[in-house]
Design brief:
- By secondary structure, the protein is mostly helical.
- The chain is built from five helices and no strands.
- The longest helix is centred in the middle third of the chain and has 109 residues.
- The N terminus is likely disordered.
């Protein structure tokens, strides 16, 4: 949409119109210039919320300047313009201080005196009563309203109705632009809603397809798992069969080898065992181990008894012989022939 601004040449006679030529907007710097440049150069306008001279927040704990540092308004009026500018530049610098961070939850800041001479602080103000008799005073007149000194010159321009612009004529392009922008924005929002709806439908279709594919993948994985388990089971069974066949073959071979070896080993083993006395006749072993030792013991006991009887008989014969010899000798001595 193109807006045509009326020029002075196209304006009818007798009507004052004004149209400024289009010009580029000056780019503002990101940072604020120094105070000296602001005072010396042209005035720059900005948001007062970012001005250091505007006090925000709690003013009870505001750091106030001492009485010596505060300037009297009357004295300010008497100072020249340059001194007022210097004082205005100096005052924000004095007030600019490093702000204390906010206290953590559950705590609060406490004001601490940092002056050279400390002053005792108390909630109760010291007071005392005093009285005196004075003359009656007249009522003090009302303080006149302070009106700052006027600087500069007042300039005024009288403008009659209809001299600047025609409201109906000038508003029509603006209204057309607003309506066009509104319609364009509405169409964009409708197209965006339709696009979002189509995207959601595509997303739902994609999610349904993905769920179906996941189910199919799970089914294939389960089938593959069953096949793998069946394969492993059959391989394990086949290995067990082969192991059993191998053990059976080893047993048969060991039995054949043992039989062949024993056919040659048995005669020699039996011969050696028989020579060492491992094979014997039970009757002969019984006679040798049972009867012969008993017989020998009986013979020995009988011989011992006979030997003892003979010894006793010999001793008896000896005693009788000895007694007879002694008796014989005694009888020979007592015979008559000897007398």
């Amino acid at each position: 949409m193109t807006t045509v601004l009326p020029s002075q040449k196209e304006a009818p006679a007798g009507t004052y119109t004004f149209a400024s030529r289009p010009r580029a907007v000056h780019s503002r710097s990101k940072y604020r210039e120094s105070t000296a440049e602001q005072n010396d150069g042209p005035a720059s306008y900005g948001n007062i919320m970012y001005d250091r001279r505007v006090i925000r927040g709690n003013t009870y704990a505001l750091h106030t300047l001492p009485t010596a540092a505060q300037l009297d308004p009357a004295e300010l009026q008497r100072q020249p313009e340059s001194r007022r500018r210097a004082a205005a530049r100096k005052r924000p610098k004095d007030q600019q201080r490093v702000a204390t961070p906010e206290p953590v939850e559950g705590r609060k800041h406490t004001d601490v005196q940092t002056d050279l001479y400390l002053e005792e602080l108390s909630d109760r103000i010291e007071e005392s009563n005093a009285g005196c008799q004075t003359d009656a005073f007249l009522d003090r007149p009302a303080t006149p309203l302070f009106i700052p000194a006027k600087t500069g010159k007042d300039v005024a321009t009288q403008i009659e109705d209809g001299e600047l612009f025609d409201f109906d004529l000038e508003v029509r392009p603006l209204l057309e632009v607003l309506v066009g922008k509104t319609m364009e924005q509405a169409l964009l929002e409708v197209m965006e809603e339709e696009e979002l709806a189509s995207l959601q439908a595509q997303q739902r279709a994609f999610e349904a397809q993905r769920d179906a594919e996941l189910v199919e993948v799970q089914r294939l994985e389960e089938r593959e798992r069953r096949r793998h388990e069946e394969k492993e089971r059959r391989i394990r069974e086949q290995r067990e069969v082969l192991q059993k066949e191998k053990e059976l073959a080893e047993k048969v071979a060991a039995r054949a080898f043992a039989q062949q070896h024993l056919t040659e080993l048995l005669p020699s083993v039996y011969t050696v065992l028989q020579q060492h006395g491992f094979f014997y006749d039970p009757t002969q072993r019984d006679v040798e181990t049972g009867f012969l030792p008993w017989l020998m013991e009986e013979v020995s006991s009988t011989l011992e008894r006979r030997c003892a009887a003979r010894t006793v008989l010999d001793m008896l014969i000896k005693d009788v012989t000895t007694q007879r010899v002694e008796a014989f000798h005694q009888g020979a001595y007592l015979s008559p022939d000897s007398k």
